[in-house]
Backbone:
DNA sequence: TGCAGTGCTGTAAAGGTTTACATTTTTTCT
DNA sequence: AGAAAAAATGTAAACCTTTACAGCACTGCA
């Protein structure tokens, strides 16, 4: 149905090699030949068949982004960043959900092995040993970069926000407002971001002579629901904190929502801060004071590192790109009563 | 570096054809041969090279999802639905942003032509004539399905929510509450969803003997910012509506946020409804009364139709799958004062 | 025993490129 | 003008599978 390079060669009276060169290295071909070939190409709307090209070049011209949950809107900005960068390089973006298996029962990671993707951007720090083995078996361990999250054990380049610094900004700000009794509304226990942020908060509190006892940590995950549950714990506390710093904006929103049901309002009764600066934060009521992560930038940087890796540029095994975060002061925080 | 089917054939003492059959049609091979081959396969961790397979089979085993803006979190649930369905069929999901061009300057649609994808799920109803031509040139017009949005001119199968019915539910509910003066906060002027929803609202209002004069329509787009701008218009109205139905949840949130700056609060002073039921709606303050779209379902159905199309099953050119919507009554609406 | 039918397996031809190497043409230099 | 160097082009192999077709070894049947 569709024309092949052979047809174009025949039609323009040159060899397939010349057609190929005209298309991918025009400078290697006489101007005259080039024009001759290009005319036929355009006339017939010829496009190289990328499957054949990829087979020959041993390159898929696409990379895989693996997320813990495709349905989580948090990732969309990161995808946008990845795609921005990749499209400049003519590379496609394949996305997959870490939970979904191929019908064969094999993990999505096997796609790398199948030569479907040239590399992997992993947005899920919860990286099982099995996944690591599979990666090793694929000979692709050196074409992986983690974005946003990263595996605790290390061993891969990673692009991340400066989570500790973010918490320092948050705590400094709250402490500056006069808060002395600050709680932490936590993300998932094993999650590296949660661990990092909690540690950051603790460090920053210590710098102000304050502490973060376990009793002032609300365990949960990053979700709205967990925030709402935390509200329940909050109201039952003997000595209520005057401020809560949350591990995510969704937690903060859930918390504020939950507290309001008990007649406790932010920032009047308690200051609440989020982390992430997701799109709705600025429009929440009260608008959320939060730490802004550059999610687009995370995507762009991760893609950049991966493209380098694919190009064979050497990137240290534990290379870390850390992106700055910033404090967004809005309406959910105030001086303590 | 990595083993090919030839190596496996040699190592297990059979021909490449037999290895291929063992892997893709095991029933065509003796049990003994099968075991013999599989042992070698597993021992060496052999995986077929999908580029070679795809070249030979003339199939990419992947589909492209095209969105107007990858960064818009609205789409994530749809992606999740698409991927769920595709992964069952062993098909990969490629995503692309309609705005981004390949370095060659060609539109992403040319990927179809390049044989990189077997079909297209388009989430962007704003389908230019040029895009349509490019699609026609690729011989892929019959492997396209629209999800969520669809092109006004028709001509492609489409999966969508029952937008009119959604507006009927909304208006019936507001009218039942006693509202007589209802405004519409609009999405982008040319957008098919906006047009459909506005028409739906108008119809439903008429059924209650009410009207929607242009003066009571706030023009905008689907964004939070547009909602906030609408608030400005609202406060300057001579006769203020008692309720506003918005074309999206983000509009509703922006509107409520904007109004609150003028001391106008939902639902006390005005009832505000959204459309979509995005993830944060239930946790907004006030929790948003809205029309729920089954975004995951949209993705699943769209993928299903596309897979049928790819399998060569006949799907009428203008086949439409309409998914039901539902009314979510929450806290942003009340009887008029 | 001969023959048709059945079930496995092997051979080799696609599938559409890219590219190393060989060959031809053009340019440059003396 | 002629040789050497450089540039353009052509030939054919390689990339790794799948699959049509042919061949072979059986089985069952007359």
Residues:
């Amino acid at each position: 149905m569709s024309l092949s390079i052979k047809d174009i060669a025949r039609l323009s009276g040159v060899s397939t090699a010349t057609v190929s060169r005209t298309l991918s290295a025009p400078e290697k071909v006489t101007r005259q030949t080039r024009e001759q070939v290009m005319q036929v190409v355009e006339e017939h709307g010829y496009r190289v068949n990328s499957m054949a090209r990829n087979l020959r070049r041993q390159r898929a011209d696409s990379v895989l982004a693996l997320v813990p949950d495709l349905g989580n809107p948090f990732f969309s900005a990161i995808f946008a960043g990845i795609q921005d960068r990749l499209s400049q390089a003519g590379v496609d973006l394949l996305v997959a959900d870490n939970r979904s298996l191929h019908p064969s029962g094999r993990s999505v990671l096997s796609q790398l092995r199948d030569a479907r993707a040239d590399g992997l951007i992993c947005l899920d720090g919860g990286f099982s040993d099995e996944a690591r083995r599979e990666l090793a078996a694929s000979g692709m361990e050196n074409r992986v970069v983690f974005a946003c999250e990263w595996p605790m054990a290390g061993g891969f380049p990673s692009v991340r926000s400066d989570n500790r610094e973010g918490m320092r900004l948050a705590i400094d700000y709250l402490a500056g407002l006069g808060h002395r009794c600050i709680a932490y509304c936590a993300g998932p226990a094993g999650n590296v971001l949660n661990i990092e942020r909690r540690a950051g908060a603790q460090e920053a509190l210590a710098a102000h002579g304050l502490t973060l006892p376990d009793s002032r940590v609300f365990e949960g995950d990053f979700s709205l629901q967990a925030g709402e549950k935390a509200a329940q714990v909050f109201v039952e506390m003997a000595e209520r904190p005057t401020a809560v710093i949350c591990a995510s904006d969704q937690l903060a929103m859930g918390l504020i929502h939950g507290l309001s049901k008990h007649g406790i309002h932010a920032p009047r009764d308690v200051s609440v801060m989020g982390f992430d600066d997701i799109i709705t934060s600025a429009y929440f009521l009260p608008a959320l004071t939060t730490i802004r992560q550059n999610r687009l930038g995370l995507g762009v940087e991760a893609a950049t590192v991966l493209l380098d890796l694919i190009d064979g540029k050497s990137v240290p095994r534990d290379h870390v790109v850390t992106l700055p975060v910033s404090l967004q002061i809005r309406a959910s925080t105030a001086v303590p009563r």
Notes: Residues 4-6, 16-17, 20-21, 24, 48-57 of chain A lie near DNA strand C (CB under 10 Å from a C1'). Chain A touches chain B through 68 residues (CB under 8 Å). Chain A is about 40% helix and 15% strand. Chain A has three domains: 5-48, 58-161+296-323, 163-293.
